[in-house]
Predict the 3D structure of the following.
Amino acid sequence: MASAALLLWENPTIRTATLLVIPVWCFCRCYYCAFYVIEHYVDPSYRFSGPASFVRYVLRSRRAGGAAKAETTRRDT
């Protein structure tokens, strides 16, 4: 936020403000869309607190899934 304020202070034009607002708005929309998809389609019962929380969830579920598959394979043989 401070960098945007400094850019506007150095060059206070509508063009500069617009060029700052557009990528911020796009990032916010992507972030919202990603969390909408994660919360509604990945696991609606789990509440993610951020991207790192989602990565931990995926890694934890892969480890648990891998362990469950290995256990099932052991029982089958």
The two ends are 59 Å apart (CA to CA). Residues 1-45 form one domain. DSSP finds three helices and no strands in the chain. The helical segments are 2-10, 14-42, 51-76.
